[in-house]
Amino acid sequence: MKYQALKWILFGMALLLLAGCGTSPPTEFITLSAKPETPCAYHGLPVIVGRVRLPPQLDRLWLTRDETSDRIEVSNDTRWAAPLASLVRATLAMDLARALPPSTVIVPGEPKPRGPCWILTVVFTRFRITATDTVRLTARWSLVRRKSARNYRQHVTVKIGSRSAPAAASAVSSALKMMAAHIARTIAH
Prior knowledge:
By secondary structure, this protein is of the alpha/beta class. The protein has one domain: Rossmann fold (3-Layer(aba) Sandwich). It is built from three helices and eight strands, in the order H-E-E-E-E-H-E-E-E-E-H. The strands form two sheets. The chain has a five-stranded mixed β-sheet with strand order 5-2-6-7-8. Helix 2 packs across helix 3. The protein is elongated. The N and C termini lie far apart (88 Å). The relative contact order is 0.19.
């Protein structure tokens, strides 16, 4: 009887060992990229790209997609190359730098210039990669200087070419470019 129980225990352990030998797909890392833009005319104060905030449920390393209005899917094998808020801030800053004349935009990591400047802050109230292959961004952004503030709201929608993670990242990059172009045009007027 003890021999039979020991045999089943060893058989169970062998099964667990074999189950642990399975392989999982490799992790895919994706990032955002700034897109080329023709600069608009602007002769005002320098613009510092300040804080960028995302909805907390989406500001994570793993790619998320909205499945329904109350459910998100978190990818098991695709992650952002850096925290998403950092990628969004850097990409938006580079897109804005390309949309305004040289030396107008102070991107993250550059020293703050002496003298007055605008500080751009962006709060995304919606940052969705949907199950229907669409990127939807809604943001409140502000230009602040001393006690003066100019507040705006913007909505951008971009269709994703396919369900792949690189296509989703490219669509987010395109949406950020559209947002930066709108910000540049607003600043220039």
